[in-house]
From TrEMBL:
This is cinnamyl-alcohol dehydrogenase. It catalyses: (E)-cinnamyl alcohol + NADP(+) = (E)-cinnamaldehyde + NADPH + H(+). Keywords: Lignin biosynthesis, Metal-binding, NADP, Oxidoreductase, Zinc. InterPro entries: CAD-like, NAD(P)-bd_dom_sf. The lineage of its organism: Eukaryota, Viridiplantae, Streptophyta, Embryophyta, Tracheophyta. Homodimer. Its EC number is 1.1.1.195. It is an enzyme of class 1 (oxidoreductase). Coiled coil: none annotated. GO terms for molecular function: cinnamyl-alcohol dehydrogenase activity; metal ion binding. Belongs to the zinc-containing alcohol dehydrogenase family. It comes from Hibiscus syriacus (Rose of Sharon). GO terms for biological process: lignin biosynthetic process.
Length: 126
């Protein structure tokens, strides 16, 4: 859409993928971007521990907190925008019988970038 895209992550592990495969213009580690008294608000579940150098947090009086994101109305607006602009995300669709394996892969950070569980397409014993 002609925008300058910057990927922000916690480490350099995804840098090559972001720049070369996803087409990002820049890649930055997140904590260094917070100004004095800045706040990092996590909006997604992370299964691995966050790692950071504590003086970076303490000396900058930075805070790390979490929040669930958006209302149903905001989610609907975002999905409509993505549809209008023909935007998609990288997902892996899995059936219910694969959920345990999917959870193991999440723990190993072996997902690019989200799992979507196909409940309707799964064979469920009711």
């Amino acid at each position: 859409m002609g925008h300058h895209v910057t990927v922000i992550s916690s480490s350099d592990k995804k840098k090559v993928e972001a720049l070369e495969h996803l087409g990002a213009d820049e890649y930055l580690p997140y904590l260094s971007l917070l100004k004095l008294d800045g706040k990092l608000i996590l909006t997604g579940v992370i299964n691995t521990p966050l790692q950071f150098v504590s003086p970076m947090i303490m000396l900058g009086r930075k805070a790390i907190t979490g929040s669930f994101i958006g209302s149903m109305k905001e989610t609907e607006e975002m999905l409509n925008f993505c549809k209008e602009k023909n935007l998609s995300s990288m997902i892996e669709v899995v059936k219910m019988d694969y959920v345990n394996t999917a959870m193991e892969r999440l723990e190993k950070n072996d997902v690019r970038y989200r799992f979507v569980v196909d409940v309707a397409g799964s064979k469920l014993d009711l």
